Amino acid sequence: MLPTADDAAAPGAPRTVMSEPDVARALRRIAHEIVERNKGADDLVLLGIPTRGVELSRRLADLLQEVEGVEVPVGALDITMFRDDLRHQPTRAPMPTRIPPGGVDDRVVVLVDDVLYSGRTIRAALDALADLGRPRAVRLAVLVDRGHRELPIRADHVGKNLPTAHSERVMVRLTGVDDAGDSVTIASGETRAGRPSTPGGAR
Hints:
alpha/beta, single chain
């Protein structure tokens, strides 16, 4: 039997809130904002938070080089062992932390992640970064800010502000990481102890 319009709108069905062109436009805007805020690309270091933050940081570095003609160092900052919810979340094997040559001391570090939610991932990233050096400044760029902060953390650069309910899942898919093109979708999900279910790629 063919699906009906009611089936397509069934509760829980994912709906797309950012398409591939939307993601590209958001990243280009973030790159320009970073340049404007930093008054250029000098002394910048981009550190992506695995998994999708690493891919986003690479794309931002390409855009910054296109805009400023400067190659911005890119690295990865794993925060697995710095999380405060290890007892409540499935254990994930730590991923490599890669700091570009020259380190982070006295540099402007831009942390890059796909979704900003409670703020606990970023708190863990700040703790991990503190073990690596002393940046001159730390800023945050995210593709999606879905709200519901539990800590006093905000992003400096946001691709899209997306009001959500706690019970909804925001799923980011990126070419080069996932078996799909770039997209951001939102769907309802089961909750446990007031927190949404978070399968791979969902926040």
